Amino acid sequence: MARDFTSVGVVGLGTMGAGIVEVFARNGVDVVAVEVSEDALERGRAILTGSTDRAVAKGKLAEADRDALLSRVRFAVGLDALHAVDLVIEAVPEHLDLKQRIFAELDRVCKPEAILATNTSSLSVTEISVATSRPNQVIGIHFFNPAPVMKLVEVVRTVVTSADVVADVEALCKRLGKVDVTISDRAGFIANALLFGYLNHAVGMFETHYATREDIDAAMKLGCGLPMGPLALMDLIGLDTAYEILDTMYRRGGRDRRHAPVPLIKQMVTAGLLGRKSGRGFYTYERPGSPVVVPDEQTPVAAEAALAGAAAIAKVGIVGSGTMATGIIEVFAKAGYEVVSVTRGAEKSAKVFEVVKTSLNKGVVRGKLSEADRDAALGRINWSATLEHLADVDLVVEAVVEELSVKKALFASLDEICKPGVVLATTTSSLPVIDVAMATQRPADVIGLHFFNPAPLMPLVEVVETIRTSAETTATARAVCTALGKTGVVCGDRSGFIVNALLFPYLNDAVKMLEASYSTADDIDHAMKLGCGYPMGPFELLDVVGLDVSLAIQRELYLELREPGFAPAPLLEHLVTAGYLGRKSGRGFRDHTRR
Ligand SMILES: NC(=O)c1ccc[n+]([C@@H]2O[C@H](COP(=O)([O-])OP(=O)(O)OC[C@H]3O[C@@H](n4cnc5c(N)ncnc54)[C@H](O)[C@@H]3O)[C@@H](O)[C@H]2O)c1
């Protein structure tokens, strides 16, 4: 007969444990909440009351329901209080020896039929289970942070977990309103195996001053639609916990260097900068446990001061007639700049004009733009088929074909034609900006402006500085982004800049996970959407972006950084060879010809 969990125990009331207590108590289950000391118990109680009070204040929980929820929780110091519960979930720090000790003790204290579960993110559930005399009743129940909010639970069965235990825990997850994916015992399971390499890489970018914390986080939020940036997420997870997870994944997951914790993490942990829970991590918080970020010495100076030294830009030349050039022409014209569009002929110009007009008309139909503003925007665009017309512009944005020889030749011509002091920008997404800059006699004035597609909609622009770019050029580029209503993030001139360098290895890892038959495309997509709040799962996104494009970017990253973990997944290569390119070819990871 299926187990009917009427009371559960939670061990450890930190970031995760306190949230897990709330999940059960909210769903009518009695909880015995256990800590190691009276002080820790008080902290755990404060996390729970803080969270439920916030829910009441936001109108998400009635006061009476909060009181009923809290009345279901009994707090205690020591594991002896767990003798009568049906299930225990352990959420103590991520150390194998500590968890094994606790499981041995739970085995002694708990009734024989009780299920013992760990919330570990990276340790072996199997190794934890063998500390008990009932490994068949030991299972992983991996909640996501914050537990009351995130829908996903990864249920981890070992080779000895009984099938009925798995089935009962799956039914329990449903009862808690969660979506579960059941998987076997591998380091990082699904979500963390895909997440932590990315987080570590982002910390590495910050450590090497590749970009600021604000810019790294803004890039991933605005460029990929993620609910939070990687450094803010590290603060939420807790740097001590993140360190232990990375360290374990490195040792258990084949010593992939991408999981070797970036040294800065250990230094911050040693210095007590643990993230939100200690009030300071990558960011500074109002007080320990608070989600409210307050300014500190790294907070960027006020917008006006940051833009000091920016040159005034009134007239902008845009070279190219493809998707990006067309979108960028619209963006500049709408923002009030005088635009000179240079294409390779009147026919191309006519086409671009039509696309820009159609797009602006859509804005009018949707009520976002008046007819007068549309006409004014179109009136600001001058159409030309010769670069000579760029002689008096203040900024040139190049968006021609992604071929270095073509771009270099174009920049050499711009160098001849444009007046001194003009900012020359390339929209390249994969070529080194410095190569383009060195085709001119004025590399200090050359910069990357990496717009995202579709340019009129996407709020992010990566501003790519080379080692020769002047501070004035960067300030001007930033000011232009602001004037366009975009967020400009400044980064160094490395393959993939911020967004693609962090995004594509993660997508490639998902393909490798599928290739290894660890899980299905559906479950992996689910895990990232429901566990991490991503707007799309990796396979959905790969099919949208195009597998050929993804493979090309991944190859570039691999070639530049020579990181073995970046080697393109063979399955990705095979799918591209087979012509399965994603939505555009009707089939990629999924078949898009049938609905
Ligand atoms: N932080 C996350 O985002 C996250 C997400 C999912 C899973 N996890 C996993 O959850 C577990 C807990 O992580 P956390 O981030 O909540 O850690 P935490 O440091 O915030 O909390 C751990 C709690 O365990 C208590 N504790 C320590 N020894 C104990 C003992 N002997 N008996 C009872 N309580 C004890 C501590 O006092 C502390 O309150 C780890 O296995 C971690 O990998 C963490």
Give a structural overview:
It is a single chain. By secondary structure, the protein is an alpha/beta fold. The chain has an 8-stranded mixed β-sheet, with helices on both faces. Strands 13-12-11-14-15-16-17-18 form an 8-stranded mixed β-sheet, with helices on both faces. Strands 9-10 form a two-stranded antiparallel ribbon. The structure holds nicotinamide-adenine-dinucleotide (NAD). Residues 11-17, 34-36, 40, 44, 91-94, 102, 119-121, 142-143, 145, 237-238, 241, 245, 277 line the site of nicotinamide-adenine-dinucleotide (NAD).
In short:
It contains 23 helices and 18 strands. The strands form 3 sheets. It has an 8-stranded mixed beta sheet with strand order 3-2-1-4-5-6-7-8, with helices on both faces. Strands 13-12-11-14-15-16-17-18 form an 8-stranded mixed beta sheet, sandwiched between helices.
